[in-house]
Amino acid sequence: MNYVLLIGGMALITWLIRATVFVLGERLVFAPLVRTALGFVPVTVLTAIIVPMAVSPHGAGAELSWRNPQLVGALAAVAVSALTRRPLLTIAVGLAVFFVWQGIVLKSW
Questions:
Q1: Residues 60, 87: one domain?
Q2: How far is Cα 39 from Cα 99, in angstroms, rounded to an integer?
Q3: Are residues 61 and 86 in the same domain?
Q4: Span 59-93, pLDDT tens digits
Q5: Which range of residues forms the domain containing residue 61?
Q6: Same domain, yes or no, for 81 and 57?
């Protein structure tokens, strides 16, 4: 029963926040500093999700070695993103490096 109340409470709070922004619409004005900070939210959330998965894919501590295909793929994606600033190419190269590294490089060792 506690889980049901917890999930219901989280759903209600999420709905209230979204409904408030939707109902108030353009009458809700954020300060320029807040608008700038909100622009960084997607990047920081994505980073907070991806970095732990790449650094510690098995959840048992950091695996900072060439035998970690998630880390190698992520580093390749970071390099491509820094050089090209093209999201689709970044995703494609990161995935390709991950699968090649996992399927070919690690299988031969």
A1: yes
A2: 32
A3: yes
A4: 889 999 999 999 999 999 999 999 999 999 999 99
A5: 42-108
A6: yes
pLDDT tens by residue, 30-58: 899 999 999 999 999 999 999 999 999 98
CB 80 within 8 A of CB 93: yes
Which residues contact residue 104 at a Cβ distance below 8 angstroms, ignoring those fewer than 6 apart? none
The 3-state secondary structure of the chain, one letter per residue: CHHHHHHHHHHHHHHHHHHHHHHHHHHCCCCHHHHHHHHCHHHHHHHHHHHHHHHCCCCCCCCCCCCCHHHHHHHHHHHHHHHHCCHHHHHHHHHHHHHHHHHHHHHHC
26 and 46 inside one domain:
no
Shared domain check, 59 and 11:
no
pTM of the model: 0.69
